[in-house]
Amino acid sequence: xxxxxxxxxxxxxxxxxxxxxxxxxxxxxxxxxxxxxxxxxxxxxxxxxxxxxxxxxxxxxxxxxxxxxxxxxxxxxxxxxxxxxxxxxxxxxxxxxxxxxxxxxxxxxxxxxxxxxxxxxxxxxxxxxxxxxxxxxxxxxxxxxxxxxxxxxxxxxxxxxxxxxxxxxxxxxxxxxxxxxxxxxxxxx
Length: 189
Known about the structure:
189 residues; mainly alpha; two-stranded antiparallel ribbon
C-alpha cells in the first residue's frame, strides 16, 4: 500500500526536522544573536511547512489506496491543483497552492478521517494566534522589504516559539487520537 511508505517517509522527515529544531532552538538560547534567531525561524518554518507537505503526501497515498476516503474536490486540493476550461473548451489543470494555515486545518481533518475520527485542533489557545502570526514573520524574513523585516525582536521570537509549540501540541494530539482509534479498531476485530 502506498500509504504505508508515505507514513514511513513522514516519520523519517519529522525525526530529522525535530533534531534540527532542537539544535537551532538551543543555539538561539546559547547565543541569541540575530543570525541564530533568524536561523531558528527558518528552521521552524521548514519543519512546519515540510510536515504539512508530508501530511499531504500521506493523505494523497491513502486516497490512492482507498479512493472513497475523500471527495474529488478534496483530492484536487490535496494535489494542489485546480481545473478550468481554456478558450477552446479543453480542460486545463493549474497549480493551486493553499495558504499554510488553511492547509494545516484541512490536512489535520483529512488525516484524522483516514483513522475514522474527527480531530479538532485547539483554536482557543493564545498559541493559535501566534501560529497565525508566525507566517507573517516568516514571510517578512524570507522576503524582506527593509531592515526591520530582517530584525527579530523579542515579540517576533515569542511568536515563533509559541507557533511551534502550538503546532507540535496539536500534531501530537492528532497522532495520539489516531493511534487510539486504530488500537480500538484492531481490538474490535
